[in-house]
Design brief:
It contains eight helices and 90 strands. A hairpin with a 5-residue loop joins strand 15 and strand 16. Helix 3 crosses helix 4. The protein is extended, with a radius of gyration of 54 Å. The chain starts with 18 loop residues before the first strand and ends with a helix. The N terminus is likely disordered.
């Protein structure tokens, strides 16, 4: 640019930013299910942000997981979705590029079309061709599927050449046929997923017989529209003998087939490549076989895409200036032009004017800066060109030449200083309007009071009153203090202000002056002699003379025109006295008028002149062609005229052609001016095809498709009336009722039509007669909320048949449905928990920031498909997300969203799916049944079904069984079962005993509820009370009643012994049970399992499959881990009182004194009314593995093993376990002896001891001594024998070392352990492991429950202290005497 030397700020002018599209999207044909790419790339020196629009709306790529933007800006659709009712990807796309803080440009638009489902409109049929002749095999497909069709012969692709061609419709043409062409042909559609093929059709080639054949047209040319540069194939397939000769003409001139762009292939079809505008016209195919000729014509239209002759250029300007962006385009049809600024369409106004294709911007303001685009579009395509507008400050000089400036502001270019160091002029004085006219105002003023220099120039800024956009007009030279403002609007107020400028820049502004223009008085008169003549089907020529009246020279003429019947008027500026207008519609009336403009503005308009463009052949075929078979020899043909606007002239009639059969055959032709035609004299039982075309004076238009109908083999019976219609259905709406029906069941009786009667309360108020082919009818103009009775009956020439009745009530009147809103997109379901899912979405009808500023709300619905008839649940929200709660665990839900604003609602969005997390089962196993095993009454099979609400995958079941249905849950025997099992076998039950069974299911989240108890009574067996049982029970609980002495006579001893044994057996059983049970007071109710030999803590039975025990076995309340006595017998019977060990057991030394004290205390409690302990019946079983407990001397071990089990509920932690060491010290191993047992230690009160309090050596020694001295003195305990039918997990023997005794500590420091006197708790944490006969398992940490109340344990300790040695010795001696007497009797 050129800049004066005294303008230093010229160097501050920023340059234009290169900004353009390198690649723009093009029309694309996509395939459903495959990816599609729309290319776009913009180049600039600044960072460019690319976005995409679809159908004018920006795409939200964040919410659409199928669409994403590539690095270069291209749009990738990963998998195209397309169905009959859902076409989310098909549409018009546009790429939008933006440079932040600078501007935006838009690319040309591109249409994405998705190929439809592969289907054939017709199947090829077997044909025979004479050697040297021509034949065609049909394969009709839709236009978008034609590029994907292929032909095969005998399973191999057909090679296409000049002799064998494929028509645009998909049909295959074989000319100059030979024997090599014979075979089985089929058409296939490839590239749209799995290939789809037609049925095979056989082509036979026969020898040339010399018999003459009639000339037949297999396929003629049809009207086609192409774009410059494309290729076209005009088919002309003729069959006959002699072989016809084909010739082509264009606009009545023969086509020179020697031209390289033209070629006749396939026996007569014309192929043109690289089309030009000159190739457009009427093509005629002429066939001559010597004895017959045929002629078919079709029009080829060639469109030319828009092309720029002049592109808009980059422009510098200053505020208040006027500029023009030039844009000149050409194309065919003439393109339409629109302008855009920064991606938004420019709307014409007083300051944005479109003159022809140019854009004029008046009175620039700073916000007008940006990128302006000229977009031109026609049927062949669209193009765009852009230019940048930069608005400079007033103190910055413009380039010396800015061609886009209007004349009004050219003088202002390159004027104005760049520095403000020196003073500028003050405001001009005395601004007045010295001359006011209708179209101009002359302003004058005086020199500023302080000019601060010479060569003062002036700028006049003016605007319409009430607007902020100013325009500027500059004086013609320095010192000039007047200016004339032109092109104003008459009778309008304007505001003016004047600014003086010196070498330092513009100064102060004058006070605004408001002036109103005068009314219009001197404008041109009407242009005389306006004539309009049609010169073509889409063009007219107009001419007129110069107006007679009016001051001044005519500057331009504006031609206004509009289509008749439309209010919108278009205009074009013309400089001469004539104009030819093109691009009009065919055979359409237009109204024209002309207005002359002079310097004062528009003059008087001429009168409207109406003219109609010339007619043409119809551009569409007749509609709704139907065939009605009247009888065996006649068919009635009916149709409707072509659509409105496609007739292109006055209708002169219709041409109807019909032929016999579906194949190509000679067709008869009938001309008529009616909308129906009766075809008579047909053959019985034959198929006929019919098609119709409309005609004007210019010729016939396109024909309909061939429609087929078959005449009757025999005429239907019309000697009786038709039967009753088989069904009648009604669908009421607000003002109408839609009626549908099916014909009478007897199809042999002719039906000529139907009659519908309807009315409010009676069907006889109105009657409608319908055609026999009709199956539905809409009864219109009804009253809302009214009850109508409807009747339907069929009729023929014999009369009316029996009617069928129905009724319906129209719906109440409601307001018209508003236009639906766009549904939400990108619906996502995020699972938060087992019963909570968060649903989120985006709303394309909101702004880019997705901020809701109106009263819209969203409705979310959800359901699960299990069961199938589940109803939707809904919720409303005003945000773009919603958290759905109260869902079922481990369940698949589907979610969809709709938006509602006022009375407008959208359809439901696409669905999103989510599966809730698992949760513990909320229902118990069901259908629990117990069956005794046949042949073995000690074994039962228990069966069940999974829980109804499993809430996840069942990983296992826990079977509980007990003989006491009211027992606490921790007193039931437990057996684990794998989750894939629904049956289990329990062995070793006691005969003639009632058992109760419960089942509990578990999944990955935990245990569910237990089932209801199921009762089962084992069968009876032989019951015998052996002497050994009596002796054993006498050892368990010896009564303190005096027994029978040995001082009686020997002869009486035998009788007494026999009686005593029987009485003692009964008394011992009853007294033993009473005394043993009495030890538990009301605070120890939960320890009743101590009298059951297999109870205690929860018990598990080790299965042959070496199952892992459930990790909830440690959760039961008051769980106690106690030493188990090692029985010397292989199958010992678990009893209540410890049996003295044999001589082989060094730890079996009894303590008679303590035992006696214990027994005496039991008897005393029994006398005080204590509840006796009940014994659990059971049988002995072979030895099995037991549970062992290991001391862990650090809490770190607990953390290390915590993942092997679930921590118990908080309530369980308030109980503790006291653990006694076994009488026989042993070395611990992970596989303890199977016969080893653990007996629970009775708790005792003690003062609290802190967990960190150390245990002295004396205390440890005292503890050890106590253990060794009292190996068998225990309160009532539950023996743990996994071999027993009521099996349990328990803690086995714990190794006690004299030098390093183990220490134990509760998990809750605030609750001290209970111990015997002198045995204090010491730190330690226990872990449990399951010892098996095969392998050992890793230890698991055990949380120690709390001890019972202090009062309870104090009573137990008191019991121990009340026994004395002499009493126990006396009782034992008495028992031994009885045994000796009994042995003597047995010996005798």
């Amino acid at each position: 640019m050129n800049c004066p030397s005294n303008y230093p700020k010229c160097s501050d002018i920023r340059g234009f930013t290169p900004f353009q599209f390198v690649v723009e999207p093009v029309d694309t044909l996509a395939v459903r299910g495959l990816p599609a790419v729309l290319n776009c790339s913009a180049a600039s020196d600044a960072p460019v942000r690319v976005e995409w629009k679809k159908d004018g709306t920006f795409l939200n790529l964040v919410a659409d997981d199928r669409k994403r933007q590539l690095a270069d800006g291209s749009l990738l659709i990963s998998a195209v979705v397309h169905s009959k009712h859902n076409k989310p990807d098909e549409g018009v796309y546009q790429c939008v590029a933006t440079i932040d803080n600078l501007g935006t440009i838009s690319s040309r638009t591109a249409r994405l079309t998705v190929a439809g489902l592969p289907r054939f409109l017709s199947q090829p049929e077997g044909v025979s061709v004479r050697s040297g002749g021509t034949e065609m095999l049909s394969c009709e497909v839709t236009e978008e599927l034609a590029p994907f069709t292929r032909w095969e012969r005998d399973g191999r692709p057909v090679e296409l050449d000049g002799r064998v061609i494929q028509l645009p419709s998909g049909a295959l043409v074989i000319s100059n046929g030979s024997q090599s062409d014979a075979g089985l042909y089929r058409c296939s559609i490839d590239g749209l997923g799995p290939a789809k093929t037609t049925d095979e059709a056989q082509l036979q080639v026969s020898a040339d017989s010399g018999v003459e054949e009639k000339l037949e047209t297999l396929q003629g040319p049809v009207a086609v529209v192409k774009v410059v540069g494309e290729s076209v194939l005009l088919p002309c397939v003729m069959k006959g003998y002699p072989v016809p000769v084909i010739r082509w003409t264009l606009n009545d001139r023969p086509i020179d087939e020697s031209r390289e762009r033209f070629a006749v292939i396939g026996g007569g079809s014309l192929q043109i490549v690289n089309l030009t505008e000159e190739d457009a016209g009427i093509y005629v195919c002429q066939a001559d076989s010597g004895n017959m000729t045929s002629e078919i014509q079709a029009e080829l239209t060639v469109h030319v895409p828009p092309r720029f002759l002049t592109r808009p250029s980059n422009t510098y300007a200053q505020e208040s200036m006027d500029i023009i962006f030039e844009c000149d385009v050409t194309g065919s049809p003439p393109p339409t032009v629109k302008w855009m600024k920064d991606g938004d369409t420019v709307i014409p106004s007083d300051y944005f004017r479109m003159k022809q294709h140019n854009l004029q911007v008046l009175g620039l303001v700073k916000s007008d800066e940006g990128f302006y685009q000229c977009l031109a579009e026609n049927d062949a395509g669209n193009v765009q060109a852009s230019a940048q507008l930069i608005i400079l400050d007033l103190d910055v000089a413009l380039p010396s030449a800015v061609p886009s400036l209007t004349d009004a502001t050219t003088d202002h270019v390159a004027s104005g200083p760049s520095e403000r160091n020196d003073p500028t002029p003050s405001a001009p004085r005395d601004v007045v309007a010295s001359l006011v006219s209708t179209r101009f105002i002359k302003l004058t003023w005086r020199l500023p009071a302080e000019p601060h220099g010479e060569n003062i120039t002036y700028s006049v800024f003016y605007s319409l009153e009430g607007t902020n956009r100013e325009r500027v007009e500059n004086t013609s030279g320095p010192g000039e203090m007047q200016v004339t403002i032109q092109n104003l609007v008459p009778d309008t107020k304007y505001t003016f202000r004047v600014v003086a400028s010196n070498a330092n820049g513009p100064g102060e502004s004058s006070t605004p002056l408001t002036v109103a223009t005068q009314l219009e008085v001197q404008v041109p008169g009407p242009a005389p002699n306006l004539q309009v003549v049609s010169v073509g089907t889409s063009s007219v020529t107009l001419s007129w003379d110069r107006p007679v009246t009016g001051n001044g020279e005519i500057q331009t003429y504006r031609l206004f025109y509009s289509e008749k019947g439309r209010d919108s008027e278009q205009d074009v500026d013309v400089t001469g006295l004539s104009y030819t207008m093109t691009g009009l519609k065919t055979f359409t009336e237009y109204s024209f008028r002309v207005v002359a403009y002079n310097k004062h503005g528009p003059g008087v308009s001429t009168e409207d002149v109406v003219v109609r463009t010339l007619s043409d052949v119809p551009s569409a075929a007749p509609q709704n062609l139907t065939l009605e078979v009247l009888n065996s020899t006649s068919i009635m043909v009916r149709w409707q005229p072509p659509p409105t606007g496609t007739l292109n002239g006055e209708l002169t009639g219709y041409r109807l052609r019909y032929r016999k059969g579906l194949r190509r055959a000679d067709a008869a032709e009938i001309s008529t001016s009616q909308l129906f035609q009766l075809i008579e004299g047909l053959e019985k039982g034959k198929v006929y095809t019919v098609r119709v075309s409309a005609s004007t004076v210019n010729g016939s238009g396109p024909t309909t498709e061939w429609i087929a109908a078959e005449t009757f083999e025999n005429d239907l019976d019309e000697s009786q009336v038709p039967g009753v219609p088989s069904s009648l259905h009604v669908r009421p709406l607000v003002n109408r009722i839609v009626v549908s029906w099916t014909p009478p069941e007897n199809q042999d009786v002719l039906v000529r039509g139907y009659k519908i009667g309807y009315g409010i309360g009676s069907p006889h108020a109105h009657t409608v007669t319908l055609d026999y082919k009709q199956r539905f009818y809409s009864i219109d103009n009804l009253d809302p909320s009214s009850h109508y009775v409807i009747t339907l009956k069929a009729f023929n020439n014999m009369g009316e048949g029996i009617p069928i009745y129905n009724s319906a009530t129209t719906r109440p009147q409601s307001a018209p449905d508003p236009t639906p809103m766009l549904p939400p997109v990108g619906v996502q379901a995020t699972v938060l928990s087992h019963d909570t899912v968060k649903v989120s979405w985006a709303d394309n009808s909101l702004a880019k920031n997705q901020k809701i500023t109106d009263s819209r709300y969203y409705t979310i619905r959800w359901k699960t498909n299990i069961p199938a008839n589940t109803k939707y649940k809904t919720a409303n929200t005003t945000t773009l997300f919603h958290t759905v709660t109260a869902l079922k665990p481990n369940t698949l839900y589907e979610f969809s969203v709709m938006v509602t604003k006022s009375r407008r609602s959208s359809t439901w969005s696409m669905t999103a799916h989510g599966t809730t997390f698992e949760s513990i089962p909320s229902s118990a196993p069901k259908d629990v049944t117990v069956i005794s095993k046949e042949g073995n009454p000690r074994i039962i099979n228990i069966n069940w079904q999974p829980p109804t609400e499993a809430n996840g995958k069942i990983t296992g079941y826990i079977i509980y069984y007990s003989t006491d249905v009211d027992a606490e849950v921790h007193d039931w025997v437990v057996e684990p079962v794998l989750g894939n099992r629904l049956t289990h076998q329990i062995q070793g039950l006691t005969l003639d005993t009632t058992y109760y069974y419960k089942i509990q299911a578990r999944n990955s989240k935990g245990m569910g509820p237990m089932s209801d108890a199921v009762q089962f009574h084992t069968p009876k067996g032989k019951s015998s009370t052996s002497l050994r049982l009596a002796l054993t029970l006498s050892r368990l609980c010896v009564s303190d009643k005096p027994g029978i002495t040995g001082r009686q006579e020997k002869r009486v001893l035998v009788i007494v012994v026999i009686v005593s044994v029987g009485v003692f057996t009964i008394i011992a059983v009853i007294a033993g049970a009473v005394l043993c049970t009495r030890r538990s007071n009301s605070h120890q109710k939960k320890k009743r399992a101590a009298c059951k030999s297999s109870t205690g803590s929860h018990k598990y039975k080790n299965s042959s499959k070496d199952l892992n025990p459930p990790d909830l076995w440690i959760h039961h309340e008051r769980l106690e881990l106690k030493p188990m006595d090692k029985s010397p017998e292989p199958n010992p019977v678990m009893t209540e009182t410890p049996i003295p060990r044999t001589a082989q057991d060094p730890a079996a030394e009894p303590s008679h004194q303590r035992r006696g004290e214990s027994l005496r205390h039991e008897a005393e409690e029994s006398r005080r009314g204590g509840r006796p302990k009940m014994m659990m019946p059971f049988d002995s079983q072979p030895p099995q593995p037991v549970i062992s407990a290991h001391p862990i001397h650090s809490l770190d071990h607990l953390h290390h093993h915590h993942h092997h089990y679930h921590l118990p509920p908080r309530g369980y932690l308030h109980h503790q376990i006291s653990l006694r060491a076994p009488a026989t010290p042993s070395v611990f191993s992970d596989r303890p002896p199977s016969a080893e047992s653990v007996r629970n230690q009775a708790p005792a009160p003690e003062p609290p001891v802190a967990p960190s309090q150390p245990s002295t050596t004396a205390e440890h020694q005292k503890t050890e001594a106590l253990i060794k001295e009292e190996p068998s003195i225990n309160p009532p305990t539950a023996h743990v024998r996994p071999t027993h039918p009521l099996k349990s997990f328990a803690a086995p023997a714990i190794t006690v070392s004299t030098h390093n005794p183990p220490t134990y500590e509760t998990t809750l420091p605030s609750t001290p352990l209970l111990a015997q006197p002198g045995l204090l708790p010491v730190p330690g944490v226990k872990t449990a492991s399951i010892g098996t006969l095969i392998r050992a398992r890793a230890p698991m940490a055990v949380t120690v429950p709390s001890a019972p109340d202090q009062s309870e344990t104090s009573t137990m300790l008191d019991t121990v202290s009340t026994y004395e040695t002499d009493e126990l010795s006396e009782e034992m001696a008495h028992l031994e005497g009885l045994m000796k007497d009994l042995n003597a009797i047995t010996t005798d």
